[in-house]
Design goal:
The protein has 688 residues and is mainly beta. The chain is built from two helices and 74 strands.
């Protein structure tokens, strides 16, 4: 076939144009797309089978993205009814969870990159048949849940074979049974927490892996201050095998707190080889309705600052070894109330307690003190022990039957809220209180204190019942002092007027009220003491204000001691027929003489009526320019004044009355009806 030149030229032109178009088209396809399409693909992994209580790891590493980077989010699509399983690491490539019930757990994985997302689903089938005891030998470093996954109630869900540290949140679900090997323990460290919250009838149980062999595990020590630390409806048994090291001191216990915080509710601690619960430092949170049984040592050992957390619904099978309060302090900001423990369970105070805050003790509380231990209410503190209308509050010795004494109560607080009402204080007074300038042993010591004492019994003190060094009584009534080896009460003249006539005394070293050398600056009335009780003056008594003595009052003076009525004072000692006022010697049987009464006051109220002054005149009064001994004395320089009627002055070692000047009634007249007998000087009476 022949082609013309024109035809061939057309063909060539066409091919050329087509090639150019092809080249142009290729150049356009090689240009980058300014908005590329991002692709992502989720891969949640293959279906899994697991046992209930067995941790499951979900793997999303098969997911992909055209950009090379992905964000992950795992979430349950469905779980078995009643399950409370939760995912850990939900935003990571791999997440974990622990099935807590049989059934299917559908988990969705969502992956995303630059706004594009994709999802995939994986099914985990949990079977009870696959569940078995989980061995625990490593620290808990990630948030973990221990589940009740073993159906046999006698087979543990978890077996702790090594001591472990809990450094993350450990949650223990109801019904979980945990066995712990001999002498292995759990430390809840600063970063960790433990929440063991069972339910009634479905408790969390920690026990020995060999209960039958009575092999004890170490226990639990909470050093974390996390408020999540809770043991509720939990049983802890057969712990306390060996000591925990508590910052310089070592103690064995089932459950302990050191610089941590723990709440205990409806929890049983039993069969510990040592203490049940030990509080070294930190805080007890909620504490209620717990039970302590069969523990070898005290159920609880605790600081004073935390005793107020204990409720009276907590029970103790050994009421004599219930709560041990060791040497500690109630700080100024820690106002607290201590309850009566249930069923007459007793507090044991093994160390001195210092109270710098408000402390209220409820009716029925019983405190046993170790030898020579005490409770001191400091100047900033307040003690309210008011059992009015209830069972008495008891403070006694732990070993009273062996006549081992504690030191006593010391009141150094001037707060008028301090009160002892319906309280029993016994077997105290073992050693001396260090008062300012003097030392005395007493069941109750008061220095710069202010207190009411009512309806209270002080008995079997090794020395004084009460020694009042300084301060004041707000009220004092209806008390009982019995069988104290020393004097029942010793106080200054200023406070003698607070003593009532209904307080009783029996079997004491001195039955009555001892007044040591002191001065009275405010008007007072002294009551006649009940029964045969007497006031006793062991030093010179100086009245600088009015002193009235009730009919029947009996006051005995030690050798050479005296009553001085200063110029600013007056004395009204007016008894009645058959109810005379008696001034006598504290040693009548030995015929030991006291000095007498020296009137230095010109007050017209000075009176002796129906009084007896016996065995006085044993020491001279220093009159101006001369000295004279007499039962009743008045110096003319004082311009004294006295009315004396129906009074007997007898057995004076010297004069009955020596009156140099001032005013005195006709004491020798028949109308005055005075009697002078058996006195050592003749004449009995010297008048100006």
């Amino acid at each position: 076939m022949k082609y013309t030149r024109k035809f061939l030229s057309g063909i060539l032109l066409s091919v050329t144009m087509t090639g150019m178009l092809f080249l142009n088209s290729c150049e356009e396809e090689e240009d980058p797309d300014p908005n590329p399409t991002v692709t992502v693909e989720a891969d949640a992994g293959s279906a899994l089978n697991a046992g209930v209580g067995e941790q499951v790891m979900l793997d999303g590493s098969g997911s992909s993205s055209s950009t090379g980077s992905l964000d992950y989010m795992w979430e349950f699509s469905s779980i078995p009814s009643g399950s409370s399983a939760s995912l850990s690491g939900a935003s990571a490539v791999s997440a974990t969870f622990t099935p807590d019930m049989e059934g299917d757990y559908e988990v969705q994985l969502t992956v995303s990159a630059e706004g594009e997302t994709d999802t995939d689903m994986v099914t985990v089938t949990a079977s009870q048949a696959a569940a078995s005891t989980v061995e625990v030998k490593d620290d808990v470093d990630n948030n973990t849940t221990w589940t009740n996954h073993v159906s046999d109630p006698d087979v543990p869900d978890y077996h702790v074979t090594e001591s472990i540290g809990i450094n993350a949140a450990l949650t223990i679900e109801p019904g979980v049974l945990i066995h712990v090997d001999e002498d292995k323990g759990l430390w809840v460290n600063n970063e960790g927490s433990v929440s063991a919250e069972g339910t009634a009838g479905n408790e969390v149980v920690f026990t020995s892996s060999n209960e039958a062999g009575q092999l004890y595990w170490k226990g639990i020590l909470v050093k974390s201050s996390d408020a999540a630390n809770v043991m509720a409806h939990t049983i802890v048994r057969f712990a306390g095998n060996s000591e925990f090291n508590h910052s310089g001191s070592n103690y064995a216990h089932a459950v302990g707190v050191e610089n941590g915080r723990l709440s205990l509710m409806n929890t049983t601690i039993e069969q510990s080889a040592a203490y049940g619960f030990f509080h070294h430092s930190g805080e007890v949170g909620d504490f209620s309705q717990n039970h302590f049984s069969g523990n070898a040592d005290y159920a609880m050992r605790i600081q004073a600052s935390q005793v107020g957390k204990i409720d009276n619904a907590t029970t103790f099978t050994n009421v004599n070894n219930a709560v041990n309060i060791y040497e500690s302090t109630l700080e100024e900001s820690e106002e607290t109330t201590w309850v009566a423990l249930s069923s007459d369970a007793r507090y044991y105070v093994s160390g001195n307690i210092n109270v710098y805050s408000y402390l209220e003790i409820m009716a029925g509380a019983i405190f046993d003190f170790a030898e020579n231990m005490d409770m001191k209410v400091r100047s900033e503190g307040v003690l309210v022990a008011d059992a009015s209308g209830g069972d008495p509050i008891v403070f006694t010795s732990k070993e009273a039957s062996a006549q081992i004494y504690w030191q006593g109560l010391y009141i150094n607080s001037n707060d008028n809220r301090n009160v002892l009402n319906n309280v029993e204080v016994s077997y105290a007074g073992n050693s001396e209180w260090s008062f300012s300038g003097s030392d005395y042993a007493a069941a109750i010591g008061i220095e710069n204190g202010r207190i009411s004492i009512m309806n209270t019994t002080v008995s079997n003190s090794k020395d004084y019942g009460i020694y009042f060094h300084s301060g004041s009584f707000v009220e004092f009534s209806g008390n009982t002092f019995m069988d104290n080896n020393g004097q029942a009460i010793a106080l200054m003249m200023e406070q003698a007027g607070a003593i009532d006539g209904n307080t009783t005394f029996s079997g004491n070293g001195w039955d009555g009220v001892t007044i040591y050398s002191s001065t009275m600056t405010e008007e007072a009335t002294w009551a006649a003491l009940a029964g045969d009780a007497q006031y006793r003056a062991t030093g010179w008594l100086y009245a600088e204000a009015g002193l009235t003595m009730e009919p029947g009052l009996n006051i005995a003076f030690d050798e050479d001691e005296a009553l001085i009525i200063r110029s600013t004072a007056y004395l009204i000692a007016s008894g009645s027929s058959g109810n005379e006022i008696m001034f006598t010697s504290s040693n009548e049987a030995g015929q030991i003489y006291w000095a007498g009464i020296w009137i230095q006051s010109s007050d017209a109220r000075n009176e002796l009526n129906y009084a007896t002054v016996n065995l006085a005149g044993g020491n001279e009064f220093n009159f101006s320019g001369s000295n004279y001994a007499a039962a009743i004395a008045g110096d003319d320089d004082d311009n004294p004044r006295l009315t004396m009627t129906n009074t007997t002055i007898q057995n004076s070692e010297s004069y009955a009355v020596f009156w140099e000047g001032g005013i005195i009634n006709a004491i020798l007249s028949a109308g005055a009806n005075n009697t002078f007998t058996g006195n050592g000087q003749i004449p009995d009476v010297v008048l100006p």
